[in-house]
Design goal:
Blueprint lengths: L10 H8 L29 H9 L4 H5 L8 H14 L2 H13 L8 H14 L4 H14 L6 H13 L3 H13 L6 H13 L3 H13 L6 H15 L3 H12 L5 H17 L3 H13 L6 H14 L2 H14 L2 H17 L3 H17 L6 H12 L3 H11 L9 H14 L2 H13 L13 H10 L26
Length: about 475
Amino acid sequence: MQRSRRGYADQASVAQAFSPPTEPSKMIRQKRQKPMPLNRIQLRDIPAHTREMAKKKGLSITSLLQTDLTELNVPQMRFVYRMIVEAGYVVQAWNAYYRLCQKQMIHHLDIEDHIATIILLKKAHLPGTVEKMSLVLKAAKDVGFPPSSALTSTLGLEYARLNWHADMDEFWKSLQRDSVRKSDYVYIAMISSLYKRRKFREAEEIYFEAKRSSGIRGARHRVDRVMVECYARWPRPDKAREIFERWKKSEPNGHNLTKGYNSILTAYGITGDLDSILKTFQQMIDSGLTPDARTYGILCTVQMIQGNEPKLVEYFRMACRSGASGTIGRVATDVFRYFLKRNEPEKALYLLSVYKMARNQNSRLPFLPYVTLIQHFVSKGQISAARNVFNNAHAGQAIRLHEESVLEMCTGFLREGSEQEGKNLLREANALGLLLSPRIDNYDPRIKQWAEEAGLRVRKSSTRPATGPHTINVKRAEFS
């Protein structure tokens, strides 16, 4: 894209800056937080009333976990299963549930047990969670329970969140085929899935269906929220604004109103209307709402387009103070790239210190901004600068090693001729339990050889990739 030192060349370029990219980014995405290592999903002890009920029956939690539910009578089986679920033992609960299915005893459980199981699986985020949730829904349906709102809502939202669009379509068709009454959350999930694939007209039809449905409590607000975002991505800022103004009159939650304003700002950004962005932001401030990281991210994009560096730095500082980890990481990455493309790495390094202060307040902030800087310096042959960024990130082991940064540093060591330093880094990574990305095959074969010598394993690629041409996170639209 042609861009002058003060900003973009024309309004078409402005619109492109806010539009979602057509291909997933080549940069590594934020690594998903690992599930808790043991079979427990809660940090606190077993609930007191659970211990009391087990104690009254002369049972310990250990004995419950070792019990074969298929050998108990129905009341005993229900009691033991509920105790395992309530205590938060995910693996044992799922194994017990699956065994009951195999023995054709699942009909002895109540619908509340199925709901508790699917909620437990959702909290755990273990491998294959959504597949297991789908099996719970099918098992409940097979034994005659009508699909409950809790089951269908949870499963639909998970399909939409994971971008499993083919599964979402099949799930929606099954609900239509069985004439299942859909909750507002199911409508939200389907609209989200459709607009992520840029099927805006189909999403609009689902929205009208939701509004026509009787008895959908809260649909006027919750479904309105997601439809404002859909119209913003279309982009149809007039329609987004119309729904938002109607929703704003009856929405007491300021946080949700901030999200609505962010969608309106995004819509104006995609259409290239920067003046309306600034006016809407001022209206937001006048309403007494507090901007979040996404708001400041949009404003950062506006300042990058206009070439206003003082305001860009000001809004970036505010974004880092807002506390939304994933969004701050995306904003920082784009701001760093902005200065790197202008051959001003010293400004990017200065803002890195601001980002690190935000990271100290929130340890879950993404590592991607660091990777961006390391890749830049390695590509320029400035290995010492890349090493400084890498060491700055891991000083005091405050931030764990990142697979992409390790591979980039090894590339730099190869260019510098410091092979031993690269091997030592991979040994350290192995000692810390790091798994390398499958993209290691795209790097120099010698790096893969070093990794094998260090005993490093390569992480398996996902067996269930997101489907559809627009699998990138739609929240990136305003930062692209």
